[in-house]
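Researcher: We're teaching a course module on how sequence relates to structure. For the next exercise, students receive a sequence and then see the predicted structure as C-alpha cells, so they can try to spot secondary structure elements on their own. Here is the exercise chain.
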Amino acid sequence: LAVQLKTFLERPENDSTEIARCDIIAHSMGGLVARNYILSEDKVRRLVTIGTPSYGGLFSAEAGALLNNQAEDLEFGAPVTWKLHREWSAAANRGDLPRCLTIVGTNDFAPGQFNQSDVVVPCSSASLENLGFPVYYVPLGHSGAFREPGWSDPETGAKAIAVIEDEIHPSFPALESFLNSEDCSLPDNLPGHNGGSNDVGDK
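Model: And here is the predicted structure for the students to work with:
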C-alpha cells in the first residue's frame, strides 16, 4: 500500500504533474501506510493521523474475516507495527520526520470503557506523544459503522472521527491550525489538549 501511495504521489490520477510536497491526512490503517511511506520519501510536509492503530487495535482477531492477513498486523506487539515504531523512533531522534499531529477518539460507549478508546483503537495506540508529537482528543468513535444509520453526535452533529464535513467537526480547529500555522502549533484554548486517562505520556 505504501508503494501504491508513492505511485499516486508521483503521478496523480488525471494529472501529469508530479507532486513535490504534500500534506497527508490519514484515517485508521491509512496512517500506518503513510508512516511507512514517509520512511523512504521526503515529499510529506505534515502528517495528521486520525484513529490510527500505531501499536495495535481492538478486535483484531474478530476482524480476521474482513481484513485477511492485515488483522495479524493489528495485534498488539505485531512485528509490522513494532518494526515501524523502531524505525520512526530512530528517525525522530535524527530529526528526519515531518511535523505530525495525532487525533485520538475517546467515544467508546462500552460500559466502563469511555475515554479509553474509539471502540476500535485504544487511546494509547492512536497517540504518538511518546515520539514527541502533539495529540488532540475528540469525543467521537472510530467510524459510523458501529452506530445506527444517520447517527450523529448530539452535541457536535459530527458523524464519526474521520467524517470531517465542515468546521463544526471537533477536529476541524486543530486541523486548521496545524496545517496552516507556520510552527504547526495548536491554540491553547482548544478543548482537545486535555490528555486521556490511558494516553502514553499522559499530560
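Model: If you want an answer key for the exercise: The first strand starts at residue 22 and ends at 27. The longest helix spans residues 79-94.
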